[in-house]
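Recap from last week: sequence in, structure out.
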Amino acid sequence: MPEGEFVIGRSSNCHLALDDALVSRRHAILHVGAEYVEVEDLRSRNGVQVNGVQIHGRQRLKHLDRVVIGAQELLLVQRDQAAPTLARGTRPTLGDMTLDLPLLDLSKKGGSRTEGSVLNRIAEKALALGRFEEAERMLARRLTQLLVEVRGGAQPSQETLRITTDYAMQLASGLAKGYWLEWVFGVHDACNSVLNADTINALHSLVRQIRYSGGPAFRSYMANLRARAAQLSKPEQFLVRRLESIERVVGA
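Predicted structure tokens:
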């Protein structure tokens, strides 16, 4: 995240909008410099805590400080001091520090947007505002991590797969990057999962829009689907035929 001010609150105009009754409309602001991060309470109703202590006004943060705003806890991590256990996931950069924000828990089959999805909300706001490069910086490492884990045998929930596929599709469209379509095919290939109808519909126009010419992940995915054709249901076989029409387009 670039240097400047980062407002947190319940208002949709905030950089990070929290749907939390304990959070004021403009609750707090992070002042980000090249070598520092400070948090300031904007006279909020329930205040801001740093390491369990209520602050008044503005306070400089240091490595591993915990900031509580409403029901949300943010952990500040200095990158060169971050322990491996804290290095998981993608964090918005704040000067030479990063915010360790709760992510969707890939280990939970019932994962949803409401389960520790602070980073997801920031990324979704960036996507909605058309700030695709900013969203990519926040999501790229996390999406890559998911692909590695799935290829290693992990099985994400259908909700996690749906949400992350949506992110990748938006990145592909906004940045005109075939890389993110390759990610979509790669993760579904590793999961032995047939893309849903809505995603396939979007792909029909998107491959033309960004001039996607196919890639190793797409070819592997299509080969996998054909090899499993006898195991697929009739609706799934119909979806495969729709994917084959995309295959003809990108191969033309």
